Amino acid sequence: MTAVRALRWCWTRVMDHLLVVAIVVAIALAALAALPSATQAADGEHLLVADLRGRALVVLDPTRPDATRRIPLPGGPHELLRLVDGRIAVSLEQAGAVAVVDLDSGQVETLVTGGLPHGLALQHDVTGDRLLVTDREHDAVRRFVMAGSASMWREVSSTYADGWPHAVVSRDDGAFAYVRANDAVIAIDGREVGVSSLPETLTLSPDGARLATAGATGGSVHIVGWDGLDRVDAAVGGRPVRTVFSPDGSLVAVARSAASSVAFVDLHGGVRVASVAGTPDGLAFSSDGRRLYAADMAGGRITVIEVSTGRALATFSMGGLSAGSLMVLPAR
User: Fold this and answer.
1) Cα–Cα nearest to 327, from 299, 279, 295, 305
2) Rounded CA separation 99/237 (Å)
3) What are the two backbone dihedrals, phi and then psi, of residue 261, each rounded to the nearest 5 degrees?
4) CB contact at 8 A, 295 and 48
């Protein structure tokens, strides 16, 4: 009987342990199920990708990247800008035009600008919104009054900007800034701030208090206060061609086009690097700031990066020839 009791006692202990293990496994599986999947978009958001060589915009769902929708354009798309009415302005530099695209209907209107239109920004004015367009052929930041059909938008006074004006941003109060790539300068509402050589990008923090740019050949990122005084510089190398602020303004993501990677630069100059596919160009944070999407200009791929760890969660084709500028579209 003693042996039988001992056997029963051992069996009871084993079953107790198995029950504990089963509970732990169930909790772990539930926690994993609650985590977002590698490509899950925040709140059902979609991506808009500029296919430069394919002369089209591509709309895709990161959770179903094989299901894409293409909108043909009359030229290769460079920069993207969301307008107040939800349409997208697209610079077509080689075509000397700006396309205005209704993503729902696929309708495309064309504003013929001439020159080499590239950077785009929306400037608010008491008399109506204006589209700012950089044009290095005319050495100017040009202004167009946005009234009626896009093909009829009227050009008004421009700002002379020699030294290859490339990217432009505007604050809610109408003040604007742009980079002169040849001069390695940010012009901020009439003031000039020197930066490393060949700045091709400019981004504005969500609160409008800071700007970020990067010198493509200089290899440094610069985070500058709107007053031009509060400044952070960080060497990142890798031919940085694109900067973008995180939704909370605490990080700047940088596309290192010659190093198949992106850098995350904080407001104190700290740098973290994450590997991505191909030749990164366009960048966009998810609306919750937890993911960064990086577009591969050479291979037409998108890499999804977990911002907190720098880990690549997924890489997929965007269904085009080249993935350039990138925009996150809010869920509807």
Assistant:
1) 295
2) 33
3) -160, 165
4) no
Domain match, 65 and 183 both? yes
Cβ-Cβ contacts under 8 Å for 14 (sequence gap 6 or more): none
| pLDDT, position 104 | 94
Residue 214: the pLDDT is: 98
Closest by CA to 178, choosing from 197, 192, 198, 158, is 192
- pLDDT at position 13 is 54
- The edge-to-edge listing of strands for the beta sheet with 46-51 is 64-72, 56-61, 46-51, 326-329
| Domain CATH number, residue 69 | 2.130.10.10
Q: For residue 139, what are the contacts with CB-CB under 8 A and spacing of at least 6?
A: 160, 161, 162, 163, 165
Kindly give the parts of the chain with pLDDT less than 70.
1-43, 332
Q: What pLDDT does 1 receive?
A: 44
The three-class DSSP label of residue 195 is coil
The span from the CA of 57 to the CA of 80, in Å, is 10
Q: What is the DSSP letter of 32?
A: H
Instruction: For residue 301, give the amino acid letter.
Output: R
Query: Do 67 and 30 share a structural domain?
Result: no
Same domain, 10 and 144: no
Pull the structure tokens for residue 324: 């350039």
Look at residue 5 in the predicted model and tell me its pLDDT: 53
Whether 314 and 306 have beta carbons less than 8 Å apart is answered as no
Classify burial at 117, counting beta carbons within 10 Å of its beta carbon; exposed 0-12, middle 13-18, buried 19 or more. Answer: buried
Q: Residue 294, CB half-sphere, CA atoms under 13 Å: how many?
A: 37
Same domain, 105 and 201: yes
Residue 14 structural domain: 1-35
Question: Do both 127 and 10 map to the same domain?
Answer: no
What pLDDT is attached to residue 125? Answer: 86
User: Domain tally for the chain?
Assistant: 2
- From CA 273, how far away is CA 234, in angstroms rounded? 12
